[in-house]
Amino acid sequence: MLFGKKSVCRDEKTMIPWELLDRALVPGDGGELRLCRRGKEFSIRIDGQELMNSSAHGSEDALAELACTRVRSRSGARVLVGGLGMGYTLAATLRLLGEGGRVVVAELVPAVVAWNRGPLGVLAGHPLQDDRVTVREVDVAEILQSEQQAYDAILLDVDNGPDGLSRKANDWLYSGAGLKAAFSALRPEGILAVWSADPDRAFTRRLRAAGFGVEIVQARSRGPRKGGHHTIWLASRTS
Ligand SMILES: C[S@@+](CC[C@H](N)C(=O)[O-])C[C@H]1O[C@@H](n2cnc3c(N)ncnc32)[C@H](O)[C@@H]1O
Question: How far is the CA of 52 from the centre of ligand 1 (A)?
């Protein structure tokens, strides 16, 4: 880790210098992630743009809450979370699942897992230490392509949304082929929940074409009534 380097994550609005804690290459064609800290606030950035900030995680929590309330009563519910980020979606999933529930987290960048075992762990209450969690340092696409009827819920927050930001290869996840793979990886009546910074009508159409029943929810970034609006698709496998 590169603890201690200053100002490489400069905030253009306030010009307050951030401290660069570490950086890591995204496998494939994905550029470089930077982990930065300013006081108690953390930021993960990719090529100068913010992917995630610890002060705004309302919609990341909502992603898990909206999907998991629908499946939590199933015995031995299994949830796939892709990716880990700062662990908020994972922590919200664990709060809702019972003792018999199990969560697989797919995270593409091994350094993100290390950051969650280190300086980021405290943010969401160290969810990786929960015995119900298995971490896989892989592209979530690999899991979707290899598992059939394995999950009651799949929570996808790997990028800025169907438009992408961090990695061109993630486009596949939001394509017709990717959505069909997600449909097959779900158990009957399972839920695919997808986070996005913005609405996207073409993506809604692709979900329907893949066989999902679709509900769209606007979630706020800083709790139920504060912060920017993000889009969450709740796509149900009804057969
Ligand atoms: C916006 S963050 C997720 C935030 C998370 N929901 C939270 O609550 O903190 C996106 C994460 O997805 C990871 N990622 C990007 N593409 C991925 C992929 N194809 N498979 C698995 N993880 C991926 C990134 O490295 C990053 O950790």
Answer: 9
Give the other-Cβ count within 10 Å of 160's Cβ: 17
Compute the distance between CA of residue 216 and CA of residue 188 in angstroms, rounded to an integer.
20
Say if strands 151-156 and 186-196 run parallel, antiparallel, or are unpaired: parallel
Distance (angstroms) between ligand 1 centre and the Cα of 185 equals 19
Name all residues whose Cβ lies below 6 A of ligand 1: 51-52, 57, 60, 82-89, 106-109, 112, 139-141, 157-159, 166-167, 170
Query: Is the overall model pTM greater than 0.90, yes or no?
Result: yes
72-108 burial, b for 16+ CB within 10 Å, e for fewer?
A: bebeebbbbbbbbbbbbbbbbbbebbeeebbbbbbbb
pLDDT in tens, 91-113: 999 999 999 999 999 999 999 99
Rounded-to-integer distance, Cα 29 and Cα 168, Å: 7
CA atoms within 13 A on the CB side of 40: 5
Residue 105 CA to ligand 1 center (angstroms) comes to 10
pLDDT of 167 strictly over 90: no
Q: How far does residue 158's CA lie from ligand 1's centre (Å)?
A: 4
Domain 58-237 in CATH: superfamily?
A: Vaccinia Virus protein VP39 (3.40.50.150)
